[in-house]
Amino acid sequence: MPSETTLTTCREALLAGDPRSAAEGLARLVARNPADTEARYWLASALAASGRGEDAGRALEDARTLHGLLAAQRMGVDTRRLGNDGDYAARAARELYAAHHVAMAGVLFGRAIAAGHLSQDALLAFGLALQHQGRAEEAIRVFRAALETYPSAAVHQFMLFPHFHVENGPARYAAEARAWALRWAPEAAAPIFANTPSAGRKLRIGYVAPSFCGTQVRQFITPILESHDPGAVEVTLYPAKAESESGWPSHIAVRGIGHLPDAEAAASIRAEGIDLLVDCWGHSAGSRLAMFAHRPAPVQVAWINFVQTTGLGCMDYVLHSDSMAAPGTEALFTEKVRSMGPITIPYRPLANRPPPWPAPALARGQVTFGAFSHPARLSDATIRAWGRILRGAPTARLVLKYRYFVDPVLQRATQARFAAERVAPERIEFRTESAGAEYLAAFSEIDLALDPSPCPGGTTTCDALAMGVPVLTLAGADFYARIGLQCLIAAGLPKLITESWDAYVAKAVALAEDAPGLAALRARVRPGIDNGPFTDEVGFTRKLEAVFREMFDERQAMPAAA
Known about the structure:
single chain, alpha/beta, Rossmann fold, 3 domains, seven-stranded parallel sheet, 46% helix, 9% strand, globular
C-alpha cells in the first residue's frame, strides 16, 4: 500500500485482494477520525475478508451504530436525549420501525433499553428489527429475554421463525417448536367424535387463520375456495372476526372465533361436526395453534403459511411437495408429512400483468441480477456465492429489492458484506417497497433472479417467473432449503436448479456471458409457469379434497384409543 493512507487506497487494496493491508490502513483512519462511518464500514469489510470474523462483527456494529445515530439525527431525532430518556428513545425507535428503517430502529431500541425502557413491546420490536436485518442469532437472544421477562405463548412464538436463519436451523426450530407446544399447548383429553364415515356424504372442512381477506393467506387460498366442489365438501372459515371476510363464494360459511378462549373455540368447532380442520397460519402473530391441542376435529392439518412443524403432537399432517423431500425430514416433524405432488398449493399470478419485457441486457449491454428477497434470507453463504458471481461477471450489477432496503444503514451494511467479497458498493443497488403495476414493472430491469439459500424465496420466486424472469436456485440439504424447487420444476425449468454452490456460481456466470441465450431462456419462462401445474387450480383442489377424504377415512379406521 502507498505510504499515504487514504480511504481510496484502502478500498483499492481490499478490492484487489489485499485485505490485511487494507485493514491496517483503515484501522489508522478510524483512530484518526472515529466519526468516519465510511472508514468503519470498510474496516469491517477488510477484517471479514482477512478471516477475523469476531473483529469484523464488532467493527460492523460500530459502523451501524454511528451511522444509525447520525441518520436518525438528520431525520429529526434528538440523539442527546437517547442516553437518559428511554421512553423518548423507544418512541423514536417505533416511528423508525413503522417507516421500515429497521437498522436505525434497532440502534434506538438498544439505546431505549439501556436507558431503562424495558417493556414487552420494545423487546419484541427490538428483536424484529434485528431479525429483519438478518441478525437472527441476536434476535433470538432478545426474544428469549422477552420470554423470560414477559412469559406467554405469543411472546414465545416470536422466537421460532428466526431459527431458520441460523446454522442447523430446521433442527433448532423443531426443538423450539416442541418446547413451545409442551409449555403452552399441552394436549387435552381426547374427545369422542360423532363424525360418521365419509362415504356418501360431503366432507366437512374447516380453515383457521386470523384473517383470510386481510393477510397474505388470501393470495393462496382464494384459488382453493373458488374451486372447492360444493357437491363434495362443506367449507367453513374460522377467522378472528367474521365481519372481516367478504367476497368468498356463497357456499363458504364463516364463523368468527376470535372472542372465544381456546377450549370454547375447539368445542364450538367440534359441535359443528368438522371432519378435518386446517391451520393456515402456524406460529405467526395471531396464531390459534393452542386451540388445536383441544382437538376440535378428528383430523388436523398444517398448511399454506407453514411448511415446518408446529411442534404439536395433536397435529396429524403437514403438506409438502415431492421436491421438498430430503433425508431426515420426518424426524423434524411431530406431524406426518404428506406430499401433494409437484406443488404444495396453486399460484395465481398478479392481475393485470403486462406482456413480458425483453431481456434488459440486450439494451443495456450489461446483465442485471436481482433478488426481491427479505434481507433476513441473505445468509453469509448466499453473500459469498453472489460475490463470486459478481467477480466472475465484472460488468454485471445486482439489484436488491425489499421494503426494508429504504433504510440507509441496512443498505450500507449490506454493501459492506459484499465488499468483504471484493465487490464494490456501487455494484449493489437497492429498490424499496412497491405494489401493483409499479411492483410488476420492477421485474423489467432484471435479467436473472438469484434465489438465496438455505432460506429461498417462495412467492417472490413465482412472481419473477410469472413476469418472465428466469430464477436460479440451489437444491438445499433440507426441506426448507428446497421450497423453491417446485417453482422451477412446475415452470419446466429444472436446469435452473443446481446441486452445489459451485454449480450455482458457474451457471450464473455462464448465463451472464451469453445475453442472447439468456434472452432465449426468458422467452420460455412465462409460458412454462402459465401452462404448468401452478395454474391448474381446479385440478389441484380436486386432489386436495381427495387427500383430505383419505386422511379422514384413515383416522376413522384407527382404533378408538388411537
